[in-house]
Amino acid sequence: MSDVRASVAGPADWPEVVALRTRVFVDEQGVPPEIEQDDADATAVHGIARDAAGAVVATGRLLLRGDGTATIGRMATDAAARGRGHGAAVLAELERQAAARGVVAVELHAQVTARRFYERAGYAAVGDEYVEAGIRHVTMRRRL
Ligand SMILES: CC(C)(COP(=O)(O)OP(=O)(O)OC[C@H]1O[C@@H](n2cnc3c(N)ncnc32)[C@H](O)[C@@H]1OP(=O)(O)O)[C@@H](O)C(=O)NCCC(=O)NCCS
Prior knowledge:
Keywords: Acyltransferase, Transferase. By secondary structure, this protein is of the alpha+beta class.
């Protein structure tokens, strides 16, 4: 278990969130910068976790669908901070935020390399793998 804490990001955290997502998705994974940020960022609930020095080292976002379900995406932990529970803490915080808004089920498009990360958090794969932003994904769901 980890004592890493996550929280909801405020406007002042946004530059750090963007910088982290750019490092992970654009620089590390080669996602085109023009699709990394999108209109959904304006309405999403963004989660963050910080390291001991206070830097944002993990993030993710929650998109409410309005039908009792929600989507979690853009989960990213700084490469130097992986494996220490920051990603799991952000995921759990986003699930708490979802449940507080009446969400009963969360769906996400998992990169296949992160499938085990989500399985450990209680998600199950549905359907076949597909390619999104040039990366192999699988849809996963969890009831809250
Ligand atoms: C996937 C990602 C967000 C995980 O973040 P993290 O902070 O390293 O994850 P955690 O340390 O909280 O890991 C939680 C658990 O999942 C496991 N886990 C994490 N990433 C894993 C992976 N890629 N494969 C298998 N297990 C993994 C950890 O070992 C840990 O297990 P434990 O509960 O037994 O300790 C991070 O690896 C990342 O940013 N990857 C690059 C971007 C990416 O692929 N994002 C996902 C988009 S769908």
